[in-house]
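Budget justification, computational time. The allocation requested in the original proposal was used primarily to generate structure tokens for proteins on the priority list. As evidence of use, we reproduce two of the resulting records. The first is shown immediately below.
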Amino acid sequence: MNCGNALERRCPNCGTQAPPEARFCMNCGNALDATGPPATPAPAAGAPATAAIPPEERRQVTVLFADLSGYTAFAERMDPEAVKSLVDRALLRLGHEVTRYGGTVDKYIGDNVMAIFGAPVAHEDDAERAVRAGLAMQQAIVELDAELALRVGINTGDVLAGSVAEGGYTVIGDTVNVASRLQAAAEIGTVTVGERTMRATGRNRGAV
């Protein structure tokens, strides 16, 4: 209102900067108002946090890793900005499927999404929610009609949940490592789950 300079658009939930075309926050998956005014800027460094991070605790959660693949080939013949726009759009859609099924996007690592079901908010059917989200992710990639493919790995187990160093809320433990390995070993277009996830959802095979 003073100088007329455009303000940064930020997520009202976590304060992460969002591009003008984004419909969902790439950090927390929160829905953004694409037509409304810019969100309130995040608190300055050193300011007290508006939302307290839950205390550190052991929890049983289901961890989901989803990895985009297949864009390397067309990245060689497309403009870098077009490639980034496509990947951003795909990741935002994947994050939306996580939140739609009650999960939390823990982080985006390059072209990889890590999501948690069961922390900080737990449901009785978190394992099933994670599997449904994984299947919805695969369908979402098909609907995007792009030269992209997806591998999804899901694992259920005990973790230590809380703040790591000065970062935000996350989970650590072998359960996370196994989920990542399951994703890496999965066939393109599948959702591969660990034994405990399989038992919790009543499925009798590891890939769906």
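The second record produced under the same allocation is shown here.
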Amino acid sequence: MKTWRSLQQADNGQYEVYSTLVYRGYILEGFTNKPLTQTFLDDVQKDFNNARTAGVKLIPRFAYTIKTHSGSCAENSICPPYGDAPKEIVLNHIMQLKPLLQKNADIVACMQLGFIGIWGENYYTDFFGDASKNGKGKLV
């Protein structure tokens, strides 16, 4: 991450950039029905420590899955069940992460909403209303 703070050639670009923001996606696969483990929380703290040492800020997003599967649904290639977690679990995970996020607020530039839907995009969701053609067309 330290090297990103120096002038770098942009991928396939005709320009160079200094990067001080780092997107960090966390996949909570396996935690859709239980609390986050201390090992997972410790690993998140390690990421914050590494970002601080490198002099960058993180943009974290938490999602339960990034996998899709096809089937005989209206959208064909992205069908339920999607793989996110119910509200009670999501709220519990947010409470578990809250102390880490508060402690490291100095290196969190912003947070992407996350938690709901595939990729944390808040669209294809098993528990919060399905805005896709597979569902009722709205989130609740």
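A brief technical remark on that second record: Residues 27 and 63 are 5 Å apart (CA to CA).
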